[in-house]
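Researcher: Structure prediction, please.
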Amino acid sequence: MIVLNGGSSSGKSGIARCLQAVLPDPWLAFGVDALIDAMPASMQASAAGIEFAPDGGVNVGPEFMALQAAWMEGIAATARAGARVIVDDVFLGGAGSQQRWQKVFAGLDVLWVGVRCESSVAEGREVARGDRVQGMAVSQAELVHQGVVYDVEVDTTHTEALVCAQRIAAHMRCQA
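Model: Predicted structure follows.
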């Protein structure tokens, strides 16, 4: 298991794709964006679901949390069934988010990876993408790392996703 945590537009999805290319075995990648896209549209603008504030803040409600918990259990079951898994997530709750993952991944080997990016660079990527509420990258850049413990950290501010993936892969070889 590899868990990538970083703010919006920090480069996690690109690193996940590069990891799939550089690691010797096949790896599945699951991202929180796909979970949100899989939810009914009504939950994407609901206090019970997930709300994106005009300033980039993100609020999640009880229905989102319930579906997210089921999604997390499904990913853990996939890993327990023998698949190699990369998770691309945004720990809005910092250490609390990591603790939820640790609970569902109990007994599995997990590499915790912090994906950092200077907020101004992430903000530029966010604007270029055009599919995010502006302000998410800045509001999440540090918030998602608060209290989180990592095995390895990478910074995409001036480093390409492939180089970050190679560093993560090298760290995995050192641990083996």
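Model: Strands lie at 2-5, 27-31, 50-52, 58-60, 84-89, 111-116, 152-155.
Researcher: Thanks, that helps.
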